[in-house]
Amino acid sequence: MFDAIVSADTLQDALDSVSVLVEECKLHLDEDGLQVRAVDPANVGMVDLTLDAAAFESYEADGELIGVNLSRLEDIAGMAAADQLIHLELDEETRKLEISIDGLEYTLALIDPDSIRQEPDMPDLDLPARITLEGRDVDRSVTASDMVSDHIALGVDDAADLFYVDAEGDTDDVHFELHSDDLIDLEAGDAHSLFSLDYLKDMNKAIPADAEVEMELGEEFPVKMHFDIADGQGAVTFMLAPRVQSN
Amino acid sequence: MFDAIVSADTLQDALDSVSVLVEECKLHLDEDGLQVRAVDPANVGMVDLTLDAAAFESYEADGELIGVNLSRLEDIAGMAAADQLIHLELDEETRKLEISIDGLEYTLALIDPDSIRQEPDMPDLDLPARITLEGRDVDRSVTASDMVSDHIALGVDDAADLFYVDAEGDTDDVHFELHSDDLIDLEAGDAHSLFSLDYLKDMNKAIPADAEVEMELGEEFPVKMHFDIADGQGAVTFMLAPRVQSN
Amino acid sequence: MFDAIVSADTLQDALDSVSVLVEECKLHLDEDGLQVRAVDPANVGMVDLTLDAAAFESYEADGELIGVNLSRLEDIAGMAAADQLIHLELDEETRKLEISIDGLEYTLALIDPDSIRQEPDMPDLDLPARITLEGRDVDRSVTASDMVSDHIALGVDDAADLFYVDAEGDTDDVHFELHSDDLIDLEAGDAHSLFSLDYLKDMNKAIPADAEVEMELGEEFPVKMHFDIADGQGAVTFMLAPRVQSN
C-alpha cells in the first residue's frame, strides 16, 4: 500500500526538480521514502531525487513503483495553498492515485512504468573541484550568461583559489569570479568544462535562491549539483554532461 | 434625467457580473436603482443584476433605458482607483453618457437599446435543493473540474446530507463533497444536473471569494446562483441551463 | 578615460528616457557628466538627457563619445537590484565597455558612433504657454485619450486660466481640464496643438508619476516636456512635433 500526507510546498519543490528535465517519471515508493531518477531524452541531464519519509506528515509504502505525468501532478498540487496538506493514496485495484486536498478528491490515472524511459545510473565520478555556493549565485551566473551566449564555461582556478563562470557571445562576454571568501566553501582543484545553457537554465529553475548548492567540477567532465529540499529531509542531485569545447 | 455618483469598485463589481456573459446590455435606470437582465447568445446563461440607489453616493433617475458596451464602460471604470468616485450623467440631447473621474471627462456613445438582444425572463423554478456556500468553494469546484473535463455535475445527496461536485475526464476524475457542516447552509433534496464548465468558469470570475453564494439545484434542471454585491445593496443572480447527460 | 560608478535605478531612469525613442544612441562622456541627444527615425520625437557627474557615486571622463545599444545596456542594468551599484569602465584598447555588478563582469561591444543617426538640434522655441503638472496627470491624459483616439490635443485657455486635453474618437470623446489650482504652475497664453498618441505614450513611460513636468505649448507648435531625474542631478527634455490638424 501507499498512503502519504505531505505539505503542498514540499511536494512541489520535489516535483519541480524532476519536471524541469522530463515529462513523465517513475516514483519509487519505498519504506524509507520516495525516490526518482530520470534522464532527459537527449541523455544530457540527469536528476536524482530523494524525499525521506520524515518529510511527510505521514507515510506508508511497501516498495511500490508507479509512473506519473509530472505536469499533471504539479497542476493538482498547485491548487493547494503552500501550507495545505495533500493526501496521496494508491488504489491497488484501479491502479490510480487518489489525491485529496481539503475534501477535494482528484483521481489520477497512472502511466505504465514500463512505458517510461529507463532510469539512468548516476555515475560515481571523482571530480577534482568542489564548490559550495548559494543558489542565487547559480542564478546570477546563468541569467547573465544567457544574455550573451547559449553555452557557459564553469571552472576553478586552483592557484587563484577562485570559482569562475565564462560566457562568450558573438559580440559581448560575461565573466563572473567568486573567490573562496565569496563562497560557502571551496575545495580547489583545476577544473574547466563547457555546458549547454538550456539545460542549466532548466535546472536553475528548481534551485531555491537560498539553497546551499554543492557543485562538483572537473576538466571537461560533467558537473554535479547537489542541494537539499524539505528542510534537509530531501535531496536533489543534478548531473549535466559537458559540451565539446567550442572555438 | 439620470445623474449618479458611485465608487469605482462598486461599479466594477456590478458590471463584471454582466460582462462575463454578454458584450452589450440594457441598463434600466429606475428611481430605486439600476437593473440589468441579459442572456448569452446561445441562450444558456442568464444574469439578473440589481444595484440599489443606496449603493450609490448619490442617485437620481426617472426610468431611463440605455444601451451600453460593457467592455468600454469597464475600461473607463478601470482608470479610477478602487475607492475613487465615478460620476455618471446622461446627456438627454446627445444621448451620450458623460462619465467623470476626478476632472477627467469621458463621453460614451450609447447603443440603441432596440439593437440589443431582448432581455430574458428569469424563470421562477421551484428547485428541491438549496446550498449556501462560500464563493471560494465554487472556485475550487470549477478550477479542479476544469483540469479534467469540460463539463461538471453538481448534485445533492439528500440521504447523506451533502453537496457534491463530479467531473469525469477521459483518464482522470475530480470529486468534491461538502457536508452540511462544511456549508453555510443546506436545504437538502435530491438533485443532480450536468453543466458546461465554460459558462461556470465565466460566472465564477464574477463571484467574490468571500461571497455567500446561494445555489439552487434540481434533477436535470438549471442551476441558480445568487449572491450580494456592494455590501448587500446590490444582488446578482446567475442561471445556467443544464447540459444533456453525457455518457 | 571613462570610469564611473552609478546606482542601478539612476542609470535605468536615465536610459529609459532615451530608449523609448531610439534603439541606439551616442553617449557623450564629458567631464561634468553624461549627455545624450536623439531623434526617432521619423524625426517626430526628440530627447535631450543630461546626467551630472554628481548623480554618480564616482565619475571620471575626458570627453569620450561612445555608441551603445540601449536595450542591451538596459538588460544588463536590469540584472542589478535598484540600489546596487554598477561600475562602468571604457577599455580604450578593445573599445568595449566593461560593466561590473557585484563581481559579475559584462563586456559590452560598442557601436561605431558614425553609424548612428545624427544628433538633432533641439530648437529653441519661444512658446507662449508653460504648464507645470505632475507626471501622474500626464499619465491620466495619455491613458484616457488612448481609449478613444490615436491623437490628442493639448491646449491652454488663457481667459479661463486652464490647461486642457482633448481626444476625439469615432464615437467617444475624452476631455480633461486642469485649472491653475490643480496645476503646480501655469503661465497662461493661448495654445492648442495636436499630437500623435503613439509618441506621447512612449514618452509617458519614461516620466515618473511623481515628477514635476514642465510643459511648453504653442499654437500648432511642438510640445516640450521637461523633468528632472536622479534627485535633480539629471534632466530630461522631450520635444514632440505637432500633427496636422485632423478634421
From TrEMBL, chains A, B, C:
What protein family is recorded? Answer: Belongs to the PCNA family.
- A Pfam family it matches: PCNA_C
Q: Which NCBIfam families match?
A: PRK01115.1-5
Role of this protein: Sliding clamp subunit that acts as a moving platform for DNA processing. Responsible for tethering the catalytic subunit of DNA polymerase and other proteins to DNA during high-speed replication.
GO BP terms in the entry: leading strand elongation; regulation of DNA replication
> Recorded GO terms, molecular function?
DNA binding; DNA polymerase processivity factor activity
Q: Which UniProt keywords apply?
A: DNA replication, DNA-binding
Residue ranges of every copy of the Proliferating cell nuclear antigen PCNA C-terminal domain listed in the record: 179-242
PANTHER family attached to this UniProt entry: PROLIFERATING CELL NUCLEAR ANTIGEN
The name on file for this protein is DNA polymerase sliding clamp
